[in-house]
């Protein structure tokens, strides 16, 4: 009797689970309308005649005009919302503020098309998680990656989609500047493995404006002026010219390689720079050695770096510029890309996210261009950025293409640009969108640049990149005496 | 009488039928559970569909958009996993064993052991044997350019010999250090009045993960330029003694030993606890006999106690050695394998995830596997000799 009772109850549980399972595996499409506050109403979509990038766009405009130049995006933006309720996943390394910025950037598309773009933010180990998912056969639909060399590797392995199969390659190539463009992401047979998205300008030096004024220092515009300024700061007994710390866990070294890349562009020029990326110019070459000599003068001269050169590899990259914020700065210049900003000011870092800084960017803290060195090489710029990969592409899910196409337009980043911190890789982005001090400095650098180089180490094969990071770290620790060892070790690590 | 016998027959039929039913239900529960859990959006879909069934469409829509009761959805899914994992499998076993019970006793004896062993063996094959063979095959086939040994040939370059050399340093110093220290402490605390307290303090780090310990020790080894206040404990003491601050983590070769110290700090407690228990297992009569024969304390420890706990020492040493050979976390967190501290397991990770060198990563994994096997062998043989696991 008890046994029968038991059996009956188990049967009941199974039936209940069956019911739930059927419900769970066949979710009924729900209308899922995002709250109206999240995005401007779709009814304000611009008239079709207005092409993106023409005259100053009205403030409310948040979507590209149809026709956008992209097939699936046009379909998605159609009046009958054919992709309403579809879900598209994208894995990014953006968390907290940056993650919210990306969500805001895709909100207009979600509002207008009903596509649900789900951002899967991986705070650390983004690349590792992504590799595992891709190799495991369950990739996210889309992913953002900062290393073009990895994007090409996924392309060569057939793991990511050639976007030229559904987007006009001519349009892509004209929309994206040479320095950041699709040329960096191209496969052996002309495939385009990724779409550039957000860029950072790296040729920037951050400095305390008010302390500069008080001390009577002028912003250097040439390397000679910069060297004179460095000498003067030390002679005045006002601390060190440079705030420099490259310690960043397993990634230690990239800040120093960025420096070398900026100098290489200015001393060897863009052509040699691009040969250097492909190893047609060896590390053991007069050009690289000359660039290292330039670095050595600023880094290894007594008193030039806060804490001495021995502290460079042992100082945290985020803490290294803290002495710049003192009333009497301990160091005066901090070369770092435009991703830096008020979020990284010491008082905000100490107070946590949401803290209001007592310093104002553009008033207390300024950004200058990393000066020209050899006039013959003009005023080059260095940058890097994030690339979008389309990892799932099948005829049943055209909405993925629509989202990718949206992100290829300047509108895919607009909300992030509007808050004053992002720079689009797309050349057709209207200049009026860039309103903040940082964006204008960055736009000026891009505009005035006679050539533009993409972060060389990110383009080199990963083994070479790693040897480059390790080598320059050891070179710094040697105080510049280990030059032979450094250049030869990177050449040796280059995959055959 | 007749009615009663019909009842009897019915009951017998139910008795014979019930186990089959239970087995089928068990199978169904597991299958449905796997179906639910295999859905990538299982958590939100499950609770979402329940909400929808209850009429809470807003809640369901919220869930689908990635907001709302996400935690509850995950908890519910966890509950399903628990029911399926524990309940379903348990029912499946009961049911299957009951089904086997329907067979004749001779066949029962033949079938039953297999019924219980096969699922475990199957899981081992799928999750252990297959990947191992796959890794070995990959090491000979991936990125070899036609030469099957290409990936192994790359391992004899000076760079990789240095890495393997680091593993050997770890094997000797970390294993030796933690076992000897553990043994010494176990021998000494045996005499301490507050033994439990002393042992607790030494055992305490065991509760910390390698990752957590590495983060702690990063602060311990923190370096500040000479003349500035030293935030790191080690350098604070070091400079107080009048020396210049040392960059413990970045300066080879001292950094490898600095990392090994973290391991010893974590692992000594384990050696101590096991060996202390072994020492307590040595009967007091033997020790008293040794004393009566005029053995000194040292002689008693080295000539009497040590030989008697030899088995435990081997167990602790081999277990620690396997742990050391696989060491990854400390290196990864502290240096990422830089400054000459790289070891095989960390290199394998880098080769695979950073360099996309699947073949070389597989070759490193195979080397590590081959290095662990003899130690495993010693460990198992030792356990068998002690009468455990035979």
Question: How would you characterize the overall build of this protein?
Answer:
- The complex is a heterodimer of chains A (496) and B (390).
- Chain A has 496 residues and is of the alpha/beta class.
- Chain A is built from 18 helices and eleven strands.
- In chain A, the strands form two sheets. In chain A, strands 1, 2, 3, 4, 9, 10 and 11 form a seven-stranded mixed beta sheet that branches.
- In chain A, helix 9 (254-267) crosses helix 11 and helix 17 (462-477) runs antiparallel to helix 18 (483-493).
- With 390 residues, chain B is mainly α.
- Chain B is built from 17 helices and no strands.
- Chain B has helices spanning 2-38, 42-53, 57-64, 70-101, 105-141, 150-153, 158-189, 195-203, 210-220, 233-240, 254-281, 284-292, 297-308, 310-325, 329-334, 344-354, 358-385.
- The two termini of chain B are 56 Å apart.
- Chains A and B meet through helix 1, helix 4 and helix 17 of A and helix 1, helix 2, helix 3 and helix 16 of B.
SS content category of chain A: alpha/beta
The arrangement of helices and strands of chain B along the chain is HHHHHHHHHHHHHHHHH
- Rg of Cα set of chain B: 29 Å
Number of H- or I-type helical stretches of chain A? 18
Fraction of residues in H or I helices of chain A:
25-40%
Measured as a percent range, the helix fraction of chain B is over 70%
The coarse silhouette of chain A is globular
SSE class of chain B: mainly alpha
Gyration radius from CA atoms of chain A, angstroms: 25 Å
> What is the N-to-C succession of helices and strands of chain A?
HHEHEHEHHEEHHEHHHEHEEHHEHEHHH
Largest sheet: number of strands, sense, barrel closure of chain A: 7 strands, mixed
